[in-house]
Amino acid sequence: MHRTLLDHPGVLDILLVMPSSSLAAYRALDRLMGALSGAGFSCDAAFLAVLTLENYTLGFAIQQRTRVRRDRAGKTVVQPELPPDEFPNLDGTTTILTEWASDEWFWAGLRRQIDGLARESLTPN
């Protein structure tokens, strides 16, 4: 889903303005719910997992499109130097601010989401 949103930015625009209550969307949700239920997730935990991962993926793609400046060749534009006295908490993060919108950062965050959901959902109450 993430790769599709980056490769076809118009899809993200459509998702932001069109309701996703089509039969195709419900079929995909049903398949995901079935896979998670088969892996030991309760119905509620499976639904929470789908919502969490979908929202993370959409949100990351939106951030990549709206907060990262790119040149015409698609390369990330280096952020300006931030004066440490004005931005004490961001001092030394220029590289992170420029490179966070990479596939590596997306996958690192996705792994954290999945690990957290698995720990919470598969732990007996």
Description:
The chain has 125 residues and is an all-alpha fold. The protein has a single domain, classed as Tetracycline Repressor, domain 2, CATH 1.10.357. 65% of the residues lie in helices and 0% in strands. It is built from six helices and no strands. Helix 3 packs across helix 4. It is globular, with a radius of gyration of 18 Å. The mean pLDDT is 82.
CATH superfamily: Tetracycline Repressor, domain 2
Number of helices: 6
CATH class equals: Mainly Alpha
Strand tally, please?
0
Rg measurement, Å:
18 Å
Helix vs. strand class: mainly alpha
CATH architecture: Orthogonal Bundle
**Biggest beta sheet attributes:** none
User: What is the H/E order?
Assistant: HHHHHH
Report low-confidence residues grouped into runs of 5 or more.
Answer: none
> How much of the sequence is in beta strands?
under 5%
State the shape. globular
Q: Taking all residues together, what is the mean pLDDT?
A: 82
Structurally, the number of domains stands at 1
Distance between termini?
32 Å
| CATH topology name | Tetracycline Repressor, domain 2
Helix content: 55-70%
